[in-house]
Design a protein that fits this description.
Elements: E1 2-4, E2 11-13, H1 20-33, H2 40-59, E3 62-72, E4 75-87, H3 93-107, E5 112-119, E6 122-136, E7 147-159, E8 170-178, H4 184-195, E9 199-201, H5 215-224
Antiparallel strand pairs: 1-9, 2-3, 3-4, 4-8, 5-6, 6-7, 7-8
């Protein structure tokens, strides 16, 4: 099965399953693209982190990953998006979606919004949450204590429709996370536009496996952006799918 989509060019792919040398080449290439001259020791350190992250993504069934680093309203911002595939046995994707919704609603009842969503590619369960998922180690803080960092996250669970890919029996999981929670309204619109471009294609289809970096997705996100977005702490206003 192939997955096609459109993603703004601000996102840059994180390749999965890279070797040490491939990871080093990627780190050097990114530094050069930004005009940064990193010392060899720093390149080695970042390469090790990149290689481990790449291996972890592959082990988790991630088939595509990308990150973005930029600014919203002159404030630095970052986010990460992944697409994962996992086997899932089901005869009817509508029944599968309802089952996933019930499980997610029970597991995340105290800290997430869980809802159903109709996408052009099929039905999805969407879970939106904000939790202190990251920690800055005490060795890097002035107080010498770990500092929790809130992370806003959206996950969409989509059983592949049988009419799109007969016999697929596959669950597609989209995850977008950002520690830049003040910028959640902007990110939620971008992710909403991305989800509407997802297409599931059978093997052998003449369309490319992945089609990133489309200006159309950026234009749609701008068109949909709310004039006065709600604060990210207001969970009722975190989603662009209401």
């Amino acid at each position: 099965m192939n997955i096609a989509f459109e993603l703004p060019s601000v996102f840059r792919e994180i390749k999965t399953g890279m070797s040490r040398e491939e990871a080093r080449q990627e780190v050097v290439s990114r530094a050069a693209a930004k005009g940064i001259d990193r010392p060899a020791g720093e390149i080695d350190d970042v390469t090790g982190l990149y290689e481990r992250a790449s291996a972890m993504l592959l082990a988790d069934g991630v088939v595509y990953a990308a990150s973005c680093h930029g600014e919203f309203n002159d404030e630095r911002s970052t986010g990460t998006l992944t697409i994962g595939l996992n086997p899932l046995a089901y005869a009817d994707e509508s029944v599968a979606v309802e089952g996933i919704r019930e499980v997610m609603a029970k597991k995340r009842a105290n800290f997430a919004e869980v809802s159903l969503l109709e996408l052009p590619c099929g039905k999805a369960v969407v879970a939106i949450q904000q939790t202190p998922a990251l920690r800055i180690p005490g060795e890097f803080t002035t107080a010498g204590q770990d500092i929790p960092v809130d992370v806003a996250q959206l996950q969409a669970f989509i059983p592949v429709p049988q009419e799109a890919v007969p016999g697929a029996q596959t669950l597609v999981t989209i995850t977008f996370s950002t520690p830049s929670i003040d910028h959640w309204p902007e990110y939620s619109e971008i992710v909403a536009a991305f989800l509407r471009t997802l297409r599931f294609l059978p093997d052998g289809h003449d369309e490319t496996d992945v089609r990133p970096s489309s200006p159309a997705a950026v234009d749609e996100a701008e068109r949909l952006r709310k004039p006065t977005p709600a604060a990210p702490a207001d969970r009722a206003g975190m989603s662009a799918f209401g």
